[in-house]
């Protein structure tokens, strides 16, 4: 079925047992978010909460909570989507097999938005309400106020208006709190996003930037808003392809932008010329993003359709519901990777490591076929490609290996990938730092907001070492560590977590204690068996699961500031060392705090999920 709106989707899911209604009143202040996080972990059905405290509107959670449900929602249109993307990935094959390519034709037709005139063509404009009537979702105890967590923020290029130059992005929206007036909302977008170019153009022209914030509508709009689409392909076109139905737009004289006719809510206004504090917000890396100045939208109207539903999600340390988005996006765009990134065959943003901090890639290494030993050269070029475009530019650590060394290796098999990388690592040549670079706005490990470093680690060639699996034999004969370091725990083949003293130094200053640790490990007989060491606050926590280790090691470190090594030297501006490589992954005083639930909220949700409770069997 191709859903015209969210109501059709909800009815279809309920009819097939993929959605249940919860009639018990729930509180959007932390309680709903805690329910959502547990619903995702339990692979629960979508949950429609019909009685939400403080708002007349029902709220829909866990809509995209499982891969199976996403496939069910888009079951009619996925073949056409795959045909279109396959043709893009291999146009020569499409020409050789034109009959097979006919499957793409229905999708191509649906990529043309349908534009109509007048309010009658836009159900979203049927009713009006106040900002204060909207659901006030607060996800974590330190959040600065209520947020919209599945917003569809629509803007157009002021110098080139129209749907094809538009941007539909998912940028969180703060509904209240801080210094916002009753008719203002905070608009958080990162500096590399599409709306940023539109805002910059409006400022150049001295014009206010009109923006519409939509909530709800056909599920394809939500997926399109988070897709890393190539330049020139609008989210509205992709939504039509994915949804199996042309995106409906309406033009009305009272609003400055076209209207997504089948959305559930439309918040319309203009971006003010000045910024105001926004945040904090418990974010998808597992920490708070703190309070910073961001643009403000002055709201001029709030519309909604009859029977409007407010979809929401809750983010936090992965995996969460947005993990399913990432997997689905990879499924759709995987065939395009070699077309978008020259020399790259497979790429994976590691969810357990916070998504953007760690990127794994399998590439080609063909530059010098006549050399006796394969060495990373083309891989370095591929790493620069990955850091130069799309959302992979947010990566902090980019690890690359050569397809020629292991043709069956997948970047999505994180354990096998890291083992292969560490077996071949040559720290005298494989590490390439980029300093003072643009970084993810949510990452506080760098030298300043939006500014940090990158590390391209590219290893290729023959296997150089046998990795240790336990601290035994000569590897167990570890020299005395500097005071405050220890215990030591094995976290995976060739990888250790070493508990370190509490970090107290300022940003950008190297820690001499880490240098002491590197010097002590220079005399360790097992250092080749364990070439990667993370210094952490809690070694037992990191050793408990591979996910814990990945999350701590890569979300709490900045490459240029926090990477150390045994016998490290700099020659011709190239930093190198011997094994082991050390990463200081302790929490620093300038880092954002990790997310923790309010215990009272936790107990309340556990009661709802207990035997006899309305959420029993779902959480």
Main traits of this protein?
619 residues, alpha+beta, 9-stranded antiparallel sheet, 5-stranded mixed sheet, 19 helices
Describe the structure.
The chain is an alpha+beta fold and 619 residues long. Helix content is 26%, strand content 24%. The strands form 6 sheets. Strands 5, 6, 7, 8, 9, 10, 11, 14 and 17 form a 9-stranded antiparallel beta sheet that branches. It is globular and about 75 Å long.
Lay out the secondary structure.
Elements: H1 6-15, E1 19-22, H2 31-41, E2 46-49, E3 59-61, H3 67-73, H4 78-89, H5 91-96, H6 98-101, H7 105-110, E4 114-117, E5 127-128, E6 147-148, E7 152-156, E8 166-169, E9 173-174, E10 184-187, H8 194-205, E11 209-215, H9 219-226, H10 235-243, E12 248-251, E13 259-260, E14 265-278, E15 281-282, E16 288-289, E17 292-304, E18 310-311, H11 321-333, H12 337-340, E19 344-349, E20 358-363, H13 378-386, E21 397-402, H14 414-424, E22 431-438, E23 451-459, E24 488-492, E25 495-499, H15 512-521, E26 532-536, H16 539-544, H17 546-555, H18 559-562, E27 563-571, E28 574-584, H19 599-609
Parallel strand pairs: 1-2, 3-18, 4-12, 20-21, 21-23, 25-26, 26-28
Antiparallel strand pairs: 2-3, 5-17, 6-9, 7-8, 7-11, 9-10, 10-17, 11-14, 12-13, 14-17, 15-16, 19-20, 22-23, 24-25, 27-28
Quick overview of this protein structure:
With 619 residues, this protein is an alpha+beta fold.
Structural class: alpha+beta
Largest sheet: 9 strands, antiparallel
Strand tally is 28
Which band does the percent of strand residues land in?
15-25%
Distance between the termini: 28 Å
Radius of gyration: 25 Å
Mean pLDDT: 91
């Amino acid at each position: 079925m191709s859903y015209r709106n969210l109501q059709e989707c909800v009815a279809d899911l309920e009819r097939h047992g993929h959605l249940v209604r919860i009639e018990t009143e729930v509180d959007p202040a932390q309680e709903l978010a805690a329910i959502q996080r547990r619903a995702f972990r339990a692979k629960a059905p979508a949950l429609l909460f019909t009685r939400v405290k403080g708002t007349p509107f029902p709220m829909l959670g866990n809509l995209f909570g499982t891969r199976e449900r996403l496939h069910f929602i888009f079951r009619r249109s996925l073949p056409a989507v795959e045909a279109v993307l396959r043709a893009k990935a291999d146009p020569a094959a499409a020409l050789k097999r034109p009959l097979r390519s006919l499957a793409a034709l229905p999708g191509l037709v649906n990529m043309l938005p349908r534009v109509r005139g007048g309010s009658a063509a836009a159900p979203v404009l049927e009713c009006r309400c106040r900002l204060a009537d909207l659901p006030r979702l607060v996800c974590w105890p330190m959040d600065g106020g209520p947020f919209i967590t599945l917003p569809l923020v629509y803007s157009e290029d002021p110098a080139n208006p129209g749907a094809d130059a538009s941007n539909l992005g998912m940028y969180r929206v703060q509904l209240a709190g801080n210094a916002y007036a009753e008719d203002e909302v905070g608009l958080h977008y990162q500096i590399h996003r599409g709306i940023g170019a539109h805002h910059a153009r409006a400022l150049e022209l001295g014009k206010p930037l009109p923006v519409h914030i939509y909530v709800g509508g056909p599920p394809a709009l939500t997926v399109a808003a988070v897709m890393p689409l190539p330049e020139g392909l609008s989210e509205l076109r992709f939504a039509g392809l994915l949804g199996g139905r042309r995106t409906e737009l309406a033009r009305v004289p009272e609003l400055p932008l076209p209207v997504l006719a089948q959305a559930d809510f439309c918040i319309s206004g203009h971006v003010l010329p000045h910024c105001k504090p926004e945040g904090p917000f418990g974010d998808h890396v597992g920490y708070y993003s703190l309070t910073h100045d961001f643009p403000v939208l002055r709201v001029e109207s709030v519309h909604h359709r009859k029977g409007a539903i407010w979809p929401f999600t809750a983010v936090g340390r992965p995996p969460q519901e947005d993990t399913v988005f990432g997997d689905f996006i990879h499924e759709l765009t995987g065939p395009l990777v070699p077309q978008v990134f020259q020399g790259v065959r497979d790429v994976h943003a590691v969810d357990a490591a916070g998504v953007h901090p760690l990127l794994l890639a399998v590439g080609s290494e063909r530059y010098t076929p006549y050399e006796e030993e394969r060495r990373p050269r083309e891989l370095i070029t591929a790493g620069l490609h990955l850091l130069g475009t799309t959302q992979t530019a947010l990566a902090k650590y980019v690890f690359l290996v050569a397809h020629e060394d292991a043709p069956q290796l997948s970047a999505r098999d994180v354990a096998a990938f890291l083992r292969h990388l560490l077996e071949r690592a040559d720290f005298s040549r494989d590490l390439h730092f980029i300093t003072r670079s643009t970084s993810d706005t949510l990452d506080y490990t760098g030298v300043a907001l939006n500014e940090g470093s990158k590390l391209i680690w590219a290893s290729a060639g023959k296997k150089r070492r046998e990795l240790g699996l336990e601290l035994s034999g000569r590897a167990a004969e570890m020299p005395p560590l500097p005071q405050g370091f220890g215990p030591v725990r094995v976290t995976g083949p060739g990888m250790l977590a070493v508990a370190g003293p509490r970090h107290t130094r300022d940003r950008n200053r190297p820690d001499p204690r880490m240098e002491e640790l590197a010097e002590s490990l220079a005399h360790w007989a097992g250092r080749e068996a364990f070439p990667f060491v993370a210094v952490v606050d809690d070694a037992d926590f990191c050793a408990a699961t591979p996910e814990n280790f990945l999350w701590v090691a890569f979300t709490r470190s900045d490459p240029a500031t926090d990477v150390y090594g045994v016998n490290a030297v700099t020659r011709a501006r190239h930093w190198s060392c011997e094994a082991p490589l050390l990463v200081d992954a302790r929490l620093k005083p300038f880092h954002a705090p990790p997310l923790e639930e309010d215990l009272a909220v936790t107990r309340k949700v556990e009661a709802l999920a207990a035997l006899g409770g309305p959420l029993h069997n779902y959480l």
